[in-house]
Amino acid sequence: MRHTLAVLVENNPGVLTRVAGLFSRRGYNIDSLAVGRTENPRISRMTIVVEGDDLVIEQVTKQLHKLVDVLKISDITSEEYVDRELMLIKVNSADQSLRAEIMQIVDIFRARIVDIGRKSLTIEATGDEGKINALEQSLRPFGIREVVRTGKIAMLRGQKSTSMESKEEE
Amino acid sequence: MKLTGAEILVKSLEAEGVDTIFGYPGGGVLNIYDALYDCNLNHVLTRHEQGAAHAADGYARATGKPGVCLATSGPGATNLVTGLANAYMDSIPLVALTGQVATNFIGKDSFQEADITGITLPVTKHNYLVKDVKELSRVIKEAFHIATTGRPGPVLIDIPKDISATRTDFEYPETVNLRGYNPYVEAGQEQINLAAQAIAGAQRPVIYAGGGIIASHASAELKQLAELILAPVTTTLMAMGCFPENHPLSLGMLGMHGTAYANYAVSDCDLLIAVGARFDDRVTGNVATFAPDAKIIHIDIDPAEMGKNVRVDIRVLGDVKNSLARLVERVSAKMATEWQDKIARWKKEHPLSYDQKCGGLKPQYVIEQISELTKDREAKICTEVGQHQMWAAQYYTFTQPRSFISSGGLGTMGYGFPSSIGAQVGCPDATVFNIAGDGSIQMNIQELATAVQYELPVNVAIMNNGFLGMVRQWQEMFYKRRYCNVEITAPDFVKLAEAYGAEGIRVTEAAQVKPALEQAMASSKPVFLDFIVEKEENVFPMVPPGGSLNKMIGG
Ligand SMILES: Cc1ncc(C[n+]2csc(CCOP(=O)(O)OP(=O)(O)O)c2C)c(N)n1
C-alpha cells in the first residue's frame, strides 16, 4: 500500500541527502518526494509517498526518526487531507487538426495551456494524483514529449495540522 | 581572548574529559597538531588511520568512555571508514575528527579533498561539516552527546583547514539543544507490567542478552532478574561477559556457532526475553523457525529494532538498565522446574568439545589455557575475525563485562590488533590479549610499531593454521572442498616481532603452551605468540546459514 508521510526536518545542509540516502540504503521505494521550507524558515517539510506494507512503513518511520535532523513524522494516509501535484506536460501537436481535441481535454481537466510551439503544446495542471494521472493518460494518444511532475504535497483538512506545535500522531 | 578553531577543538576535548586521542597527522590537520603541541592530551600515533579508528573503538569498549580519533583530509579520512562502519554496527561511542580542505576549496576536487561526510553518512550515527568556526564548540558538544547517549554510535566532525585557523571567542556550551534527538527513553509502566505478567506465566523462560547490557551497564540487573526467575541466560557475541559464564544459569553464546544447549533452549522456550539485542541473522538462523513456541519480550532502547527481523509480543522501549531494574521489582521468584533439569541434561549431553588427541596443537586448547591463566586478573581479550574468534567466544570463560572485545556486526579482519592497543592504553594495568588468525593479523600488522613505541605489552596469540580458516571451512562444507585462495602465507612472526623491537615466541606443542603464555604475560614488551596449530580444524557446532537453530552440525 502507498503511504503519505509528512516529515518536518531541520533546514540543514545535507538533510535531503540524509533522508534520500536512508531510503535507498534500506531498500525502501520512494514514489515521490517534495521538499520546501515551511512557515518557519529553519524548518523544511518533506512530503514523501512511499510504497510498502505496514511493517515496511513502521521501519521507514522509525529509521527516519533516528536521523538527528528529522523533527517530526506524520503518516497522514488514513487522515482526511488535501493533496496536490503540479505537472507540466509537452504534447505533440504537429497535426493541427488534433489541437482542438487536445484543448478540449485540457478544458475538462481544468488545466491550462502555457506555451504553444510549432509542433507542440505545453500544458500545466494541478490536482490530486488521480486527476494528474488521468490527464496524462488522456494525452498519451497524441504523443507525449516530456513530463515534469513535482511530486505530491499534502495538508490535513480542518483544524488538524502536522506542524511542530501540533501533537504527534501515532 | 579569541582562540583559533584548533585551540577551541583542543579545549573542547579537554572539557569533555578526553585524555587520549588516536591519530595521524597531515596537511589538513596541521593547525590541529600545532594546537596539540601545547596541550596535555595524550596522542597515540598509530601507523595507519584504520588503526587509529579501531584503537579508539577498543579504548571505548574497554573503558566505557567515548573513543576519539583524528585524521587528515582525503586519504586520512577515507582510511577511517572501515573503523567507523565497525563502530556503527556494534553501537560503539566514537568521535572521529577529520581535516578538510579550506571552505573555498570544497567541491573543486582540490588536493586531498574527499567528501567524508557524504562517504560516512551510512556508517555514522550523525556527522558534521563545520563551515563557521563559531559553530565548532557547539558541534563538538553535540557530537559527544549523540555518540554516548541513547543507542551509542560514531559521530564524525569534518573541520576545514581555514576553520581550524580562524579565531573566535570560546565558551564551551553547557547544554545541547537538539529538537530532533531525544535519547532518554523510559519504558512505560504498562509495558513493564505486561512483561512481568508474561514472566509469571512462563514455564520455560530464556534470557537472550545482547551488547545493550554492556552499553547501559546493566549486568547487575540482568543477574538479579535471571536469578530471581531462574531463567538461563544466553549471550550474543557482543555481550560475552555481561553474565558470568561460570554461573550455573549461563548458557554461553547462541547462534551460528553458539553452544548446542543455548540453541536448544532458545528453540524450546515458551518465553524469550531479549535484552539489548537485535536479532541478527547470525543469532536467529532461519527467522521462521526461531523460538517457534515462544512469546517474545524485547527490551531495548532503539524502537527501530523492535519487530525489525522477528515478531515481538511485548515491546519494552527504554534504557535497558532502567527497564530491568523495574522489571525485577515487579516479578516474584520462581521455583525450579523440569525446565532447569532439561537444560542441565542438554549441558551434560552436548558440551562444547574438540578432539584433543588426534592431530596437532589445538587452537581451542590454547584458548582454554589463556582463559585459565588470566582468570584471576583484569583481562581484556580482543579478537580478529574468523575461526579463532569463534573459538575465543566458545572456549574462554568470560566473567566480566567489557572483557571481550571483538568485531561483531561488521566482522572486520584487522580489528583485533589495533583494538587491543586501544584497550591497553585505556586499561594500563590489564592483561591484554589479541587472539588472532595468521590471515587477520596481517591486515593491520603495522600497528606493532605503535605498540612498541608506546611500550604497550599486548600479547598477540596467533592461531597459525596457514589458512583463511573460516573461509576454508565454508569451502570444505559447502563448496565440496574446492579450496580457492584460502591458503595464505605469512612472514616468520617471531623474526618479524623481533625486527619491530617486540618479542616473538613460537609454540608447536601443547606442553609449551602454558610456559609460553606465562613468559609473554611476564614480558613488558608486546609479544607475538606464533601457535602453529592444526591446519584444518573446524568450528562446531554450526548452524548452516539460513538453517534452524536446533539443527546444528556437530551439536
Ligand atoms: C576485512 C575482511 N576481509 C575479508 C573477510 C572475510 N573473512 C572472514 S573470516 C576470514 C578468514 C580469517 O582468517 P584468519 O585470520 O587466518 O583466521 P582463521 O579463520 O584461520 O582463524 C575471511 C577472509 C573479513 N571478515 N574481513
Describe, in plain words, how this protein is organized in 3D:
The complex is a heterodimer of chains A (170) and B (555). Chain A has 170 residues and is α+β, with helices and mostly antiparallel strands. Chain A is built from four helices and nine strands, in the order E-H-E-E-H-E-E-H-E-E-H-E-E. Chain B is of the alpha/beta class and 555 residues long. In chain B, 36% of the residues lie in helices and 17% in strands. In chain B, the strands form four sheets. In chain B, strands 3-2-4-5-7-6 form a six-stranded parallel β-sheet, sandwiched between helices. In chain B, strands 11-10-9-12-13-14 form a six-stranded parallel β-sheet, with helices on both faces. In chain B, helix 19 links the parallel strand 17 and strand 18. In chain B, helix 1 crosses helix 2, helix 3 packs parallel to helix 5 and helix 16 packs across helix 22. The longest helix of chain B has 15 residues. Chain B is globular, with a radius of gyration of 24 Å. At the A-B interface, helix 1 and helix 2 of A face loops of B. The structure holds thiamine diphosphate. The site of thiamine diphosphate has 20 residues of chain B, from helix 17 and helix 20.
Features:
heterodimer, A: 170 residues, Alpha-Beta Plaits, 2 domains, 5-stranded antiparallel β-sheet, 4-stranded antiparallel β-sheet, 4 helices, B: alpha/beta, Rossmann fold, 6-stranded parallel β-sheet, 22 helices, globular, binds thiamine diphosphate
Radius of gyration of chain A: 19 Å
> CATH homologous superfamily name of the largest domain in chain B?
Thiamin diphosphate (ThDP)-binding fold, Pyr/PP domains
Biggest sheet overview of chain B: 6 strands, parallel
- CATH topology category name of the largest domain in chain B: Rossmann fold
Q: What is the level-2 CATH architecture name of the largest domain in chain A?
A: 2-Layer Sandwich
Give start-end ranges of low-pLDDT stretches of chain B: none
Residue share in β-strands of chain A: 35-45%
Q: Tell me, rounded to a whole number, the average pLDDT of chain B.
A: 97
- Provide the helix percentage of chain A: 25-40%
CATH architectural arrangement of the largest domain in chain B: 3-Layer(aba) Sandwich
Structural class of chain A: alpha+beta
